[in-house]
């Protein structure tokens, strides 16, 4: 009896095979990296072009509840949904987003959904590559939608937006003054802002908050690739499962527009070139990440800070010790 | 008859020696670089800690006139003033800021002033190191104030602010709507905003513009290292030489506060460590800057953009060709 290869099992939509493959791409072991590269080569071009939806949101905004409700709505339409997480902080904080699948109990039991907790990697460069490869695996497994969730730590939103076709920002109802809390750069990434918790006592506040964000979005420069009225702010209630279909319609409208205008393809090509360059630069700079190099950088930096060595002289020492001429 | 060395002549305050030394640090020739390194080593710790004032401003704001008036006011007080320029675009645009000393005719004839046009270097990393070394030479020559001017191109403001003790932003009178033109990041760098051209017909507009910027500055987070009321916006007229002394008083107050609080020293140490790290990273990435590497990066990038190669596979090719394992 012949066993199907891991690649075949992924192509057949076996979730356990997909999970195992993602474990391979997340591994730092050289043999795993080699197997991952072979697998990715084998699967290249297979499956479909998923809609990659990046998502960020402030803590406490109800991201898990939203992903569960939104994901269930999509699977109810016959779509297959994968959920990935980018959390460069998880190695430090211990608790990871999506680390506990029980937070999305219904969705994780849905056979058309695949949920992958965040890998325990503190290095953003590594996280980006692994997430990119995990997305490629999900596309090979023919998922229609890949949701890439991030916590707003460091540069993780930038990474996720460079991996996504659409970027959602999930926000909580709040007083006008609190708008300041969202960094302008994050606002600029958002294609659609969803003000969650538009239910019960918070409904009116959510509507006001949404209007405030809509106003803030109008102040941002319109993107030439998008139709009038985007980026857009809307209210949703993940708990009451309200507004989710309208949100999905907006995403589809925007996606279709971008596909028709050619921006979709251009954007994916630009992203791929970006990641190629990032990977080369990352590898060149990796010589500074060994324990020896880190220790020596630290030592040199202390001398520079104390005024005992000029920055240039210290750099020359360091480069000589790295064997760079 | 023994000739004084270049270093001795710089220590003696000879402007021509200083100019020649800056030409050495700006050169790409290996023998010049070696001479420059030796000279900088010889002069390390000599002279004085100048006040390094970074300066940026929108085109047409009257930067040259301001530098001339402000510089003349300082030299009239017996201070020695050096003016350097950071303009990564000068190699391309042909015309460089400060390229024409006749724009500052009076100041360039003043024996207590030294004006250095921008080097023709299009590479920001290189410009930063050369400017840092030029500042060190000016300090060895015991200039009291080093003004570092930049045009607002690319990241040049960031470079200048990382080289400065104080950062001035020179702006023109304008309607409220035009405030948007100044990038928030630049606003955040400014210690003092000077609204120039507060003279003649523009006086009232300048006062209003100043109030608008003062309001905008209050919205930015106060820096813990600064006294109440900073960053601050003021009006000046470079043409009528009005407000310059008040501006200089503000700079001195802020400087004294930072010296007393220890922030001055901390800031310089942080900057030195930053430049050390930048220089090491820059040298590691320099392998991508050879004509061969650039051509190959471009070729690989095109394949990645066309979907013929994955970003990771292309990066592996590229790294192999660079001899990085």
UniProtKB/TrEMBL annotation, chains A, B:
It is an enzyme of class 3 (hydrolase). Pfam families: MeaB. The keyword NAD does not apply. Belongs to the SIMIBI class G3E GTPase family. ArgK/MeaB subfamily. Its EC number is 3.6.5.-. GO terms for molecular function: hydrolase activity. This is Methylmalonyl Co-A mutase-associated GTPase MeaB. Keywords: Hydrolase. The keyword Membrane does not apply. The gene is meaB. It comes from the Bacteria. InterPro entries: GTPase_ArgK (IPR005129), P-loop_NTPase (IPR027417).
């Amino acid at each position: 009896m012949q066993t199907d290869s891991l690649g075949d099992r992924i192509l057949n939509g076996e979730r356990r095979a997909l999970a195992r493959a993602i474990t391979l791409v997340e591994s730092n072991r050289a043999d795993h990296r080699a197997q991952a590269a072979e697998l990715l080569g084998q699967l290249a071009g297979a499956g479909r072009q998923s809609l990659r939806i990046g998502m960020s949101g402030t803590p406490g905004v109800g991201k898990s509840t939203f992903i569960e409700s939104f994901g269930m709505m999509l699977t109810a339409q016959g779509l297959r949904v994968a959920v990935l997480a980018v959390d460069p902080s998880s190695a430090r904080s211990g608790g990871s987003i999506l680390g506990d699948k029980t937070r999305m109990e219904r969705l994780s039991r849905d056979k058309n959904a695949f949920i992958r907790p965040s890998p325990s990697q503190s290095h953003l460069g590594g996280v980006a590559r692994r997430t990119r490869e995990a997305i490629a695996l999900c596309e090979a497994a023919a998922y229609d939608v890949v949701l890439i969730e991030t916590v707003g730590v460091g540069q993780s939103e930038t990474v996720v937006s460079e991996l996504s076709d659409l970027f959602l920002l999930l926000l909580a109802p709040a007083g006008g003054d609190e708008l300041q809390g969202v960094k302008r750069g994050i606002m600029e990434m958002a294609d659609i802002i969803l003000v969650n918790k538009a239910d019960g006592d918070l409904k009116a506040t959510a509507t006001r908050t949404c209007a405030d964000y809509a106003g803030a979005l109008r102040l941002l420069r319109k993107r030439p690739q998008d139709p009038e009225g985007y980026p857009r702010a809307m209210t949703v209630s993940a708990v009451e499962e309200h507004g989710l279909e309208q949100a999905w319609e907006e995403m589809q409208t925007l996606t279709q527009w971008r596909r028709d205008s050619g921006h979709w393809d251009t954007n994916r090509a630009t992203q791929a070139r970006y990641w190629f360059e990032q990977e080369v630069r990352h590898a060149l700079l990796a010589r500074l990440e060994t324990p020896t190099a880190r220790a020596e950088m630290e030592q040199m930096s202390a001398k520079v800070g104390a005024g005992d060595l000029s920055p240039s002289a210290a750099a020359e020492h360091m480069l000589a010790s790295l064997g760079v001429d």
